[in-house]
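Practice problem. Given the sequence and the SMILES for flavin mononucleotide, write out the predicted structure.
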Amino acid sequence: MKLVYASRTGNVQSVVDQLNYANTLKIETGKETVNEDYILFTYNDGNGIVPPTVEEFLKNNGSHMKGLISSGNPERHPTTYHFGADIIVKEYNVPVIAKLDRKGTPEDLETIKKALK
Ligand SMILES: Cc1cc2nc3c(=O)[nH]c(=O)nc-3n(C[C@H](O)[C@H](O)[C@H](O)COP(=O)(O)O)c2cc1C
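Answer key:
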């Protein structure tokens, strides 16, 4: 299983780094392609939207996505907390493995590790 992720300000990057997972791909432009199943790890963007690069990536690669991990900020975006993730779930019908408050907790990290096994 691949771990595909998007990170703009480093929170998601930090969690991915802690997983020590070999098979990762960072979404930089949205034009990347994958030919294997993956878990998507994304942040949430302005007013509860999916980051545009992630949206573009999913248009081409959505069928290989098997689960979702979302990182949001409940202090700064309380009314749209994880709304981008909810949009992805609705459109692609994938299970949510974890919804993190920014970098998440040690328990979140364990949940993610188990799911990746
Ligand atoms: C412009 C902007 C808009 C954001 N909008 C939301 C939002 O609507 N909902 C949410 O839960 N988090 C929102 N966030 C918070 C980020 O998703 C959160 O900080 C996340 O951990 C960032 O991950 P990253 O550091 O890997 O980029 C927003 C952050 C920024 C900078």
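Check your answer against the key. The chain is about 35% helix and 25% strand.
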